[in-house]
């Protein structure tokens, strides 16, 4: 890995910002717009045509039957099924703590103010297919929605010639997903956003996908809500001399193997550690089954940055705003207050990032591309909305009327002022 020793903080911050800028390929955008319009106009027929064209599969029924789901669950290797069920329990128990409560305040005489928290009615989750199958993403998307009280959770996933992935279907059963449709790509996002004869319209779409899925989510935003535009996976590690270079190398590669565009960044105040990690990354790459992908990611997107102090390390990592942040410093929890920008934080030498990807409970649907500066991990709050309410007594209205009228008249909105004045006239 490249070791950067002499570049000043401001220069590398600028380079990091430029590297994380998200743009949409105009060719992809045009194709996605065309697909969305076809699905809006032709519904199921367009979905079936696109499945034949893009997936090479002729579909007669878009829906996946309950019998097929049950069969996948029963046939799944018991060890994998047990792991999924235990992971689901952990995810549910963690997200249960996020549930927001409605509130009401009557501390001001004659005035009742409140917020009613209510779940979305129907959400759709996108689960990638092809060579990559992610049953863990099924759990991470669906369980917070169920904890939030969403009445109907719909899953879409690309059809496969050899049949849908058994672990993905089993995970859907474990998570309590209500309906599954075998459709993928931008056409699946369009179907969820606008509805077709078979697939009902949803209120929100979550889940990662390829560039076409990301562009489609961006295009339908406003018609429906979306979770985020997911970019390539990222890991940032803060480490000092107390860290094990072999562990650090393994953790960096755990994200680099995802995608040639994945980012793996180590920031340290130890030159010895930096050199040892660089050597370990090269050694471990040679034995990694996905070496070709990981090597490109490490060579093109990865680097080790050497700073003088832990304060500088933290300042730079806050600029990176990584999806995953490991803190492998002595007494790591003491630095949590200084971490402002990260999707999910992993504290200490035993807390390797894959624990969060699969099992421990915190969500692995996380902001990427520096968006952790202003956004958060997927959670129960993403599947709830808040409705405010207000009640005034006659006496309270009389008490506050002049202030409201003054503000309305200042903004030139005489109709607003009149709506208050007329009530005072009626009460005289």
Structural description of this entry:
It catalyses: L-histidinol + 2 NAD(+) + H2O = L-histidine + 2 NADH + 3 H(+). Zn(2+) binds at residues 255, 258, 357, 416. Belongs to the histidinol dehydrogenase family. Keywords: Amino-acid biosynthesis, Histidine biosynthesis, Metal-binding, NAD, Oxidoreductase, Zinc. NAD(+) binds at residues 126, 187, 210. With 428 residues, the chain is of the alpha/beta class. It folds into 3 domains: 3-21 and 232-361, Nitrogenase molybdenum iron protein domain (Rossmann fold, 3-Layer(aba) Sandwich), CATH 3.40.50.1980; 26-226, Nitrogenase molybdenum iron protein domain (Rossmann fold, 3-Layer(aba) Sandwich); 393-427, no CATH class. Helices cover 46% and strands 16% of the residues. It has 16 helices and 14 strands. It has helices spanning 9-19, 26-42, 44-55, 66-75, 78-96, 135-148, 166-175, 185-194, 211-220, 245-256, 271-285, 291-301, 310-320, 354-358, 394-410, 414-427; strands at 3-4, 103-105, 111-119, 122-126, 152-157, 179-182, 204-206, 225-226, 234-239, 263-268, 303-306, 324-328, 344-347, 384-392. It has a 6-stranded parallel β-sheet with strand order 1-11-10-9-12-13, sandwiched between helices. Strands 6-5-4-7-8 form a 5-stranded parallel β-sheet, with helices on both faces. Strands 2-3-14 form a 3-stranded antiparallel β-sheet. Helix 15 runs antiparallel to helix 16. The relative contact order is 0.14. The mean pLDDT is 92.
């Amino acid at each position: 890995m490249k070791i950067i020793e002499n570049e000043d903080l401001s220069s590398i911050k600028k380079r990091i910002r430029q590297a994380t800028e998200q743009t949409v390929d105009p060719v992809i955008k045009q194709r996605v717009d065309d697909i969305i319009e076809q699905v809006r106009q032709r519904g199921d027929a367009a979905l079936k045509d696109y499945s034949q064209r893009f997936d090479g599969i002729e579909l007669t029924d878009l829906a996946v039957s309950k019998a097929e789901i049950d069969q996948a669950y029963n046939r799944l290797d018991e060890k994998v099924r047990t792991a999924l069920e235990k992971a689901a329990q952990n995810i549910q128990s963690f997200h249960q703590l996020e549930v927001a409560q409605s509130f009401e305040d009557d501390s001001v005489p004659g005035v009742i103010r409140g917020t009613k928290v209510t779940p979305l009615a129907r959400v759709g989750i996108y689960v990638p297919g092809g060579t990559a199958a992610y049953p863990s993403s099924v759990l991470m998307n669906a369980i917070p929605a169920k904890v939030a009280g969403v009445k109907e959770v719909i899953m879409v996933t690309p059809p496969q010639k050899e049949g849908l992935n058994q672990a993905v279907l089993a995970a859907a059963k474990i998570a309590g997903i209500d309906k599954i449709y075998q459709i993928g790509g931008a056409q699946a996002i369009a179907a969820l956003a606008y509805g077709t004869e078979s697939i009902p319209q949803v209120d929100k779409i979550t889940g990662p996908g390829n560039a076409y899925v990301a562009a489609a989510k961006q295009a339908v935003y406003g018609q429906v809500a979306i979770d985020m535009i997911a970019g390539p996976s990222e890991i940032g590690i803060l480490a000092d001399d107390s860290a094990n270079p072999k562990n650090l190398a393994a953790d960096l590669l755990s994200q680099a193997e995802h995608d040639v565009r994945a980012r793996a960044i180590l920031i340290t105040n130890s030159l010895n550690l930096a050199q040892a990690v660089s050597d370990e990354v090269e050694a471990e790459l040679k034995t990694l089954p996905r070496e070709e992908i990981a090597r490109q990611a490490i060579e093109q997107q990865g680097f080790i940055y050497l700073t003088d102090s832990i304060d500088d390390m933290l300042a730079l990592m806050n600029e990176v705003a990584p999806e995953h942040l490991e803190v492998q410093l002595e007494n790591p929890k003491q630095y949590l207050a200084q971490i402002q920008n990260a999707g999910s934080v992993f504290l200490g030498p035993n807390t390797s990032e894959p624990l969060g990807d699969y099992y421990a409970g915190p969500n692995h649907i996380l902001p990427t591309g520096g968006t952790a500066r202003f956004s958060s991990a997927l959670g129960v709050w993403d599947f709830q909305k808040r409705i405010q309410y207000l009640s005034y007594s006659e006496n309270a209205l009389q008490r506050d009327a002049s202030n409201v009228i003054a503000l309305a008249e200042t903004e030139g909105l005489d109709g607003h002022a009149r709506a208050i004045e007329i009530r005072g006239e009626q009460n005289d």
